[in-house]
């Protein structure tokens, strides 16, 4: 939740001075428009209210996420308003809104926003009801929001590490070119297999036919765990190493040896 964290760092968490929805949103819109280097977004507040009239942005439990989209590039920007008394927001669950997180979303940042708002919704569900913080001051609310950010970061670490492992494996495959061979000669390829709990192994090889054959093999996982030598798609795969990562992820390295007229290697997988 980078945009929320930036808002907290740059002082865009404020206690809104009114319980009226329109006035509260106008106050936060002015905060966003005051961000340095903010591109011209026209009447941000008017665009925000037009959207509100067609779809109430309260997400329940005393939290609302009004937003406005804009064409082009730029940064995802957030401003946060806190109302101890509660804002008459017209929320579907009938509760007053105490926490308003307003977003300005350039077209280039829409996927970033969707990920951030998904993490935010998960944090709200864990919190249960923001009403428990209704009497808190802004400093206390800031600390709670920082907790939400920390929880979101911790939840994303395993996925990020898995992506890093996969990128490193792809890079290794790209750098490990097969031996140049003529017809009838021996061809040796480097093959990497990433195994993760509950998922099919991911095979990385410059020889696409071999990679496809391995990924279709229902018994591949058992062979990997036993470090066995085996034959597939005209290649003999010889175990070389296994590297353990967090969350039961294992990266296996094999040498694939082809005797005779080996198929020509395909292009390296895209990074």
SSE map:
Elements: H1 2-9, E1 13-15, H2 21-33, H3 44-54, E2 58-60, E3 63-64, E4 67-70, E5 77-87, E6 97-106, H4 110-127, H5 138-175, E7 187-195, E8 202-204, H6 208-216, H7 220-226, E9 230-232, E10 235-245, E11 249-258
Parallel strand pairs: 1-5, 3-6, 4-6
Antiparallel strand pairs: 2-3, 5-6, 7-8, 7-11, 9-10, 10-11
Q: What distinguishing features does this structure have?
A:
271 residues, alpha/beta, Mannitol-specific EII, Chain A, six-stranded mixed beta sheet, five-stranded antiparallel beta sheet, disordered C terminus
Shape: elongated
Distance between the termini: 26 Å
Number of helices: 7
User: Which CATH class of the largest domain?
Assistant: Alpha Beta
Overall tally of structural domains:
2
Number of E strands: 11
Strand content: 25-35%
Helix and strand composition category: alpha/beta
Q: Can you give the helix content as a percent range?
A: 25-40%
Q: List the helices and strands in order.
A: HEHHEEEEEHHEEHHEEE
Radius of gyration: 27 Å
CATH architecture of the largest domain: 3-Layer(aba) Sandwich
In the CATH hierarchy, what is the superfamily of the largest domain?
Mannitol-specific EII, Chain A
């Amino acid at each position: 939740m980078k945009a929320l964290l930036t808002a907290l760092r740059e002082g865009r968490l404020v206690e809104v001075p009114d319980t009226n929805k329109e006035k509260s949103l106008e106050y936060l819109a002015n905060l966003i428009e005051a961000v340095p280097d903010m591109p011209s977004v026209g009447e941000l507040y008017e665009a925000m209210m037009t959207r509100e009239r067609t779809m109430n942005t309260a997400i329940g439990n005393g939290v609302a996420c009004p937003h406005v989209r804009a064409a082009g590039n730029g940064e995802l920007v957030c401003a946060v308003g806190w109302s101890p008394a509660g804002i008459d927001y017209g929320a579907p669950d009938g509760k007053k809104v105490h926490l308003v997180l307003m977003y300005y979303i350039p077209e280039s940042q829409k996927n970033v926003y969707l990920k951030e708002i998904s993490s935010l919704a998960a944090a709200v569900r864990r919190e249960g009801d923001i009403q428990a913080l209704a009497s808190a001051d802004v400093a206390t609310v800031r600390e709670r929001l920082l907790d939400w950010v920390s929880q979101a970061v911790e939840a994303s670490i395993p996925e990020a590490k898995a992506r890093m492992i996969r990128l490193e494996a792809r890079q290794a495959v790209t750098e490990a070119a097969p031996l140049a061979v003529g017809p009838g000669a021996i061809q040796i390829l480097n093959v990497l297999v990433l195994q993760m709990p509950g998922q099919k192994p991911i095979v990385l090889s410059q020889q696409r036919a071999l990679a496809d054959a391995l990924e279709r093999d229902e018994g591949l996982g058992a062979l990997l765990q036993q470090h066995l030598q085996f034959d597939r798609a005209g290649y003999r795969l010889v175990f070389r190493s296994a590297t353990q990562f967090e969350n039961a992820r294992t990266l296996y390295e094999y040498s694939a040896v082809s005797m005779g007229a080996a198929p020509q290697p395909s292009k390296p997988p895209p990074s």
